[in-house]
C-alpha cells in the first residue's frame, strides 16, 4: 500500500496529513467545529472504527464516500463519532443559581421559554427543568417550556430516553435526586429515569446550530455552554448574533465557564463571566 510522506502508521491503516486535513475541512463544513493538530490521535481512534465497520481499506476511500451524494447517512455517523459530549447534571452550578435568583425572579412573562443549545445527552435540559419546576411550583401562575437541541443524533436519543446510570449523578443531594428521578430496572441494571412531570417540560430535537432554526417565540434564556469553544471565531460571532435575535430584550445567554468571549457582540452586555444580557 503506498504511504504518503508524513503518513503515520496505526495498526494496518494509514492516516496521512492529507487525510487529517480532509477530515478537518469536512467536519468544519458540517458543524463549525475547528479541530486542532492535537486532536489528530483521537480523530484517528474514533474514525478507524468506522472504517473497520464499513470494511474500507483506507481513509482515502472512506473520505471519498463521505463526500459523495450516497454519503449522507455516514456523514451523520462521522459527525457523531467526532463530537465531544461530556456533560453532567447541574454542571457549572453557578449558572443555575443565577437562573433561579435573577432570571426566574425577574421574568414577567406568563410562559417562560428556555433553550439548551448543544444539550448533549440531556443532563443540562433536565437540570433546567427541575429548577424551573421547583420555582414554579411555589404558587405561580406561570408555565415553562424548554427546547433542547443537539447535532448528535445518538446523544438526542439518549436524552429522549431520559435514563441514566446512578454513577452519572454523583453528589446530587438525595432530595433533589428523588424529585428528578424514579428508579427503574433495565435487565439486571438499576437505572434512574427522569420523572414524567419533569420530562414533559422538555422537547428534544436533533438540530445543527449552523443550519436554519425553526420559527419559535423568543426565549428568556439560552444555554449554549461548552459548545462554541469548538468553533472558529467567525462561526461563533454569527451564532451570537443569531442567539440575540432569538432572545427577549433583556434575555440571558449562558456560555461555558471556561469560555471567554471578550466583547461577544454589540448586542450583549457581560453580566458576569460567562453570563450575557441582550441589550439590542
Ligand atoms: C461538550 S457538550 C456540552 C453539553 C452541555 N451544553 C454542557 O455544557 O454540559 C457539546 C455538545 O455540542 C454539540 N455540538 C457541537 N457542534 C454542534 C452544532 N454545530 N450544532 C449543534 N450541536 C453541536 C455536540 O454534539 C455536543 O453534544
What does this entry show, briefly?
With 280 residues, the chain is α/β, with parallel strands linked by helices.
Topology:
Elements lengths: L7 E3 L2 E3 L1 H15 L8 H15 L4 H9 L4 H11 L10 H14 L4 E7 L5 H15 L5 E8 L2 H9 L1 E2 L9 H7 E6 L2 E6 L1 H4 L2 E5 L12 E5 L9 H14 E8 L13 E5 L2 E4 L2
Parallel strand pairs: 3-4, 3-9, 4-8, 9-10
Antiparallel strand pairs: 1-2, 5-7, 6-7, 10-12, 11-12
Bound molecules: S-adenosylmethionine (SAM).
Domain count, please report it: 2
The multimeric state of the shown protein is single chain
Helix content: 40-55%
C-alpha geometry:
globular
Largest sheet, in brief, is:
7 strands, mixed
N-to-C SSE string, H for helix and E for strand: EEHHHHHEHEHEHEEHEEHEEE
- Compute the number of strand runs: 12
What's the helix count? 10
> Compounds present?
S-adenosylmethionine
Radius of gyration: 21 Å
Strand content: 15-25%
What's the mean pLDDT score?
Answer: 90
Q: What is the CATH H-level superfamily of the largest domain? A: Vaccinia Virus protein VP39
Distance separating the two termini:
58 Å
